[in-house]
Amino acid sequence: MTTVRLPLFPLNSVLFPGLVLPLNVFEERYRAMMRDLLKTPEDEPRRFAVVAIRDGHEVAPSAPGMPDPTALPELGPAAGFGAEPAKSFHATGCVADAATIRERADGTFEVLATGTTRARLVSVDASGPFLTADLEELPEDPGDEAGALAEGVLRAFRQYQKRLAGARERSLSTGADLPDEPSVVSYLVAAAMMLDIPTKQRLLQAPDTASRLRDELKLLRSETAIIRSLPSLPASDLTRGRTSLN
Q1: 109 within 8 A of 31, measured Cβ to Cβ
Q2: Cross-strand partners of 10
Q3: CB neighbour list of residue 81: distance below 8 Å, 6 or more residues apart
Q4: 51, 126, 207, 233: least buried by Cβ within 10 Å?
Q5: Using one digit for the tens of pLDDT, what is the confidence trace for 57-78?
């Protein structure tokens, strides 16, 4: 299994392969990361790893806090993640490729990245200006009956979209808008569903595509039934991801 060392960007969200990740980078540790990534030649991928935070803060405290209101905020690449930052993160994350890194006049960055492949966290290094990690890239095994499961998930997802949007006559997306490759379906649905981080993380680290699709089918049926029982629910845009605060 291939091991790579990459800059590490912890977030209060789960990134899936193929999904777009907009970032608003303002903390110095992540600004240093982006400056380093900009040194990569333009014809090479500017890769970093995204992991979901299990215990900690996406943005480090920047003012005196509790219980001592006079205590200085914690600084450094591992601020907010404790003495052993690896324990603050979920072990499976996603490698991202930054297609756009734009520095603003104030030194902050606007970044647009795309998830590429899953990776397992092996170790975390906090000795530099930003966190880096050794990771093992994970292959995507299709598993058994992935094609048939993907078709069932797409049907259930369309019903879920209709219920979530409060529209019985039409869905938020037409069939032409949705993919049919099983692994792509599995990641798109995992990202689009309104789920908490632990559930999305479970889907990310599924052993194969078929297992992920089976889990999603159960979730879609359950969530659709719950939505159906509610008196009303506001429409939601399932195509737009949350921009990280940073």
Answers
A1: yes
A2: 51
A3: 10, 53, 56, 57, 88, 89
A4: 207
A5: 544 454 445 555 554 455 789 8
